Amino acid sequence: MRRAGAVGLGVLGAVAVAVVAFLVWAHTVYAGEREPSIDAWRSPEVAISATDDGFLLEPAGAGVDLGLVFIPGARVEPSAYLYKLSGIVEETGITVVVTHPTLNLAFFDTRPLEVFTAQAPDVSRWLVGGHSLGGVRSCQLAEAPQEDATADVVGLVLFGSYCASDLSGTDLAVLSLVGEFDGLSTPEKVASAAHLLPADASTVLIEGANHASFGDYGPQAGDGVATADRGTVRDEISRAVAEFVAASDLEASAAG
Q1: pTM of the entire structure?
Q2: What Rg do the C-alpha atoms of the chain give, in angstroms?
Q3: Nearest to residue 150, comparing CAs of 129, 119, 173, 175?
Q4: Residues 46, 57: contact at Cβ < 8 Å?
Q5: Which residues does 20 contact at the CB level (< 8 Å), separation at least 6?
Q6: How many helices (H) and strands (E) does the chain have?
Q7: Is 102 in a helix, a strand, or coil?
Q8: What is the mean pLDDT of residues 4-13?
Q9: Sign of CA pseudo-dihedral 221, 210, 131, 42
Q10: CB 206: neighbour CB atoms within 10 A?
Q11: Which of 49, 119, 123 is closest to 79 using CA atoms?
């Protein structure tokens, strides 16, 4: 009995250590860089506000009836994406909701899409998207919206990511942004998963970009080396999304 008790305590102790180690790892995040974040907050064309669930980026003037729910990559601070996403708002007039995933990992966030779309009640048509693991999760949200959903999901935008779920039979408009030197979601990996997207999905190669180029949080282990500066990548992302929105006829009348 004593031996069994000792073994049981040992197992519980090992589990406790593993849980603590996981929580420490999950909360050791890639922090957003200060300078690009400040540039985003200072943009006269974008109104940014912090929310309980992340950030809300809205056009300072008239916008369009289209929003994007953006899910960060694994263990990346939501603020790391403000600079790149603010360029999309400036270029298109869409509203962007940046989520803060549970435990900083998108797969642990089981909240329905409406938790995030409710932050912009004047917007009725939505894109979902995300970076890296956040993009994989966005595919799941696009594939299986809640039965009582109030948000009209019309498209998907992948930022250095690809789907693990099959969306090929849907009528979603899809844009896949691929970093030329992405060492994690490599162009080859993205291409090998392309059959899971609708046949008319658009793919745009962001020249000179690596995996971390889709945010601003410094180098990431296993990534390639970027040759394009953050401003150039921002412009290319914004242009690609604007052209996608226009070509897919997703724009609607001014929101709000």
Answers
A1: 0.89
A2: 19
A3: 119
A4: yes
A5: none
A6: 7, 10
A7: helix
A8: 56
A9: positive
A10: 24
A11: 49
Q: Fill in the DSSP letter of residue 49.
A: E
Q: Which two tokens stand for residue 226?
A: 């970027």
Alpha-helix runs per DSSP H in 27-169: 34-42, 82-92, 114-117, 133-143
Pair of tokens at residue 117: 């779309």
Average pLDDT value for residue range 237-247: 97
The per-residue pLDDT of the chain, averaged, comes to 89
User: Please, which contacts does 42-45 make with residues 24 or more away whose CB atoms are closer than 8 Å?
Assistant: 43/86, 43/90, 45/89, 45/90
**b/e map 127-163, b = 16+ CB within 10 Å:** bbbbbbbbbbbbbebbbebeeeeebebbbbbbbbbbb
Six-digit token string for 211 = 């995996």
d(CA 208, CA 200): 25
The amino acid present at 6, given as its one-letter code, is A
